[in-house]
Amino acid sequence: MKALVYTGPLSLAFQDEPDPVPRNDEVLVKVEAVGICGSDMHAYHGHDERRPPPLVLGHEAAGTVLTGPRAGERVVINPLVPCGRCLVCLDGRPHLCRERQILSMPPRPGAFAELVRAPEANVIVVPDGLDPMHAALAEPIAVAWHAVRIGARLLPRPLAASRCLVLGGGAIGLAAALVLSHFGARDVAVAETSPLRRQTVAAAGPLRPYAPGTRDEPLPGTIDLVIDAVAAEATRAASCRLAAPGGTIAHIGLLPGSGGLDVRRITLQEITFLGSYCYTPVDFAETVAALGARRFGPLGWIEQRHLAEGPRAFADLDAARVAAAKIVLRP
Question: What separation, in Å, do the N-terminal and C-terminal C-alpha atoms of the chain show?
Fold first, then answer.
């Protein structure tokens, strides 16, 4: 098969790789669409020791099952593979399993390839009529779905009566804003430094994008739910500054460090700072169903490219030459 292989920092090769062989509990999936995630970019820069080269990256995938009794099914892949035996798995939170494996991390090659193997339990049927390019958005939208769900339950009032802000207009940030709207939020602002991304956010739904530091930025202490989809020092500082007394900050981004946190204000204003990681299987299944029901608008914020164009796509993302919130590759 052909695959896009991470060979070293800032280096990708489109080359022949052995076809994967599914194990007894797995199926072989013909990949039809796979998104480029921020974690793929992190590995591309050589900053993720969990993803050593050479390695096939990619975990946001949709395609068709080729093996077993489910052959022919159009599916999306949940890339998290937990142990299924520990306390958090038994509690219904397998995304927190210490033994979890993830497609695109050894020992599980990722989906930047024509074929990928995945546990049969991890493939979810795609609703009729859902384009594979849109089905591949299930994974990043599920990340946002989980963050909104656990953040909203801590609010003192319903989302419809709350002021909400997302920091970052990339795929996860835009998805979080769309999920907030889907869950009933009526006032959703999105902070984004890129003018191109702000245009993309504005066209995606009933959202209010703005450039940080301008007059359009909300006043300090006025936001009930802040979702930090960037996790840089500047966005953590903005979260603490903008959160209302008794408000909630949901921290999705995975950048290293803790700079920017105003622990004194968090304490004095009883602000809840909440880490949010990935999603539960229920979150993932509900996201797929919502995609099938067209709950997130036209999804015109993706750009499609062929898998062979992967090296150029990564370079363009790295240089901020892309207006789209997500590039989805077609093998």
Answer: 10
Q: Does some domain include residue 280?
A: no
Taking only the tens place, the pLDDT of each residue in 166-187 is: 999 999 999 999 999 999 999 9
Long-range contacts of the stretch 190-194 (C-beta < 8 A, 24+): 190/165, 190/166, 191/165, 191/166, 191/167, 191/217, 191/235, 191/238, 192/168, 194/169, 194/320
What DSSP string describes 242-263? HEEEEEEEEE----S--TT--H
Residues 196-253 pLDDT 10s: 999 999 999 999 999 999 999 999 999 999 999 999 999 999 999 999 999 999 999 8
Asked if residue 28 and residue 91 are part of one domain, the reply reads yes
pTM of the model: 0.96
Which amino acid is it at 239?
S
Cis peptide before 54 (omega within 30 of 0): yes
Instruction: Answer yes or no: is 289 within a domain.
Output: no
Would the CA dihedral through 206, 299, 93, 282 be positive or negative? Answer: positive
Q: Where are the beta strands (DSSP E) in 140-294?
A: 163-167, 187-191, 208-210, 223-228, 243-251, 272-275
Domain that holds residue 217: 141-275
Q: Tell me whether residue 285 is in a domain.
A: no
Identify whether 23 is part of a domain.
yes
What CATH number did the domain enclosing 188 receive?
A: 3.40.50.720
Q: How many helices (H) and strands (E) does the chain have?
A: 10, 18
Q: What span, in angstroms and rounded, lies between the C-alpha atoms of 57 and 89?
A: 25
What b/e readout covers 91-119, taking b as 16+ CB neighbours within 10 angstroms?
eeebbbbeebebbbbeebbbbbbbbbbbb
CA separation for the pair 49, 35 (Å, rounded): 21
